[in-house]
Amino acid sequence: xxxxxxxxxxxxxxxxxxxxxxxxxxxxxxxxxxxxxxxxxxxxxxxxxxxxxxxxxxxxxxxxxxxxxxxxxxxxxxxxxxxxxxxxxxxxxxxxxxxxxxxxxxxxxxxxxxxxxxxxxxxxxxxxxxxxxxxxxxxxxxxxxxxxxxxxxxxxxxxxxxxxxxxxxxxxxxxxxxxxxxxxxxxxxxxxxxxxxxxxxxxxxxxxxxxxxxxxxxxxxxxxxxxxxxxxxxxxxxxxxxxxxxxxxxxxxxxxxxxxxxxxxxxxxxxxxxxxxxxxxxxxxxxxxxxxxxxxxxxxxxxxxxxxxxxxxxxxxxxxxxxxxxxxxxxxxxxxxxxxxxxxxxxxxxxxxxxxxxxxxxxxxxxxxxxxxxxxxxxxxxx
Length: 383
Prior knowledge:
Layout: H1 2-18, H2 24-35, H3 39-42, H4 44-67, H5 69-85, H6 93-121, H7 126-153, H8 166-182, H9 198-203, H10 208-239, H11 243-246, H12 248-270, H13 273-293, H14 297-311, H15 314-325, H16 330-339, H17 343-358, H18 360-376
């Protein structure tokens, strides 16, 4: 038991590193301000991060079969560390594009391989361990805006990097995670069976429930990344705040998303999944209304908290419905659902164009379309 606990330490550090990807929301806002970009251009950064899920999710599963889960996680950490080192050399538009592209590639490798690695360490109560891993990941998510803000305001030593001090801090943690994991022994069984191919996965989109679930995941991630990116902009536009003042909005979102993850597992045990899904999506709809019309701090904070809590369990419910619908093809369905994180590319791009045209209400309207779709998915939730 003691050996298992020690093995979990580097694995949980990897979950913390998985949360680095969520820095793209606050970082893209600072880059926008520093380089005087419009919303459409600045939103290319979060879009780039999630674009790689479309290309690399299924190939990463095939790579795991060849080199093993632990080595795949180590590769993801290496790519992530390189991405975090690049901003130390400047903040040009091209350099930041490469930075966020590598961050997205590293996160795609990690999202696909880290959860299976946990299953090798913990044989029982896997769900509780994964939930705790998501909690650790969320710590990195909500700390990022604070570290960037403190760096920008000089509240901590930034060594001339300002808000970009976030990158070397997270880089050092990523290096520690890689070092600890590399010296930790995690026995792996030989993979058996046929590896999933892209063709196998795409064929399953012909099944209505799989296609509708895939779109549902895209909408969930689109709202997630959209709120992460847009919440500070709404406060700046409506309340006249500076970016440093508004950065808390991103942390507020992640705080309530974390609370939602921790309490959602309890509610899903005591009520039907469909009932909880309806409550969750209704909270998201109220949030969209609040962000659309809100002009005071209390209402806007409430709206951001509502979407954080409401959206926190959508992925798990939709994901499970898809797996239950085609039990004989769980690997292929799982690969497709991870590919659905590509929604984090589509939504920010559309939101950027909309907000440049009509203000942040346009960005909220794009997210509201995603929430409306999730209402249509209610009847697909069977349990």
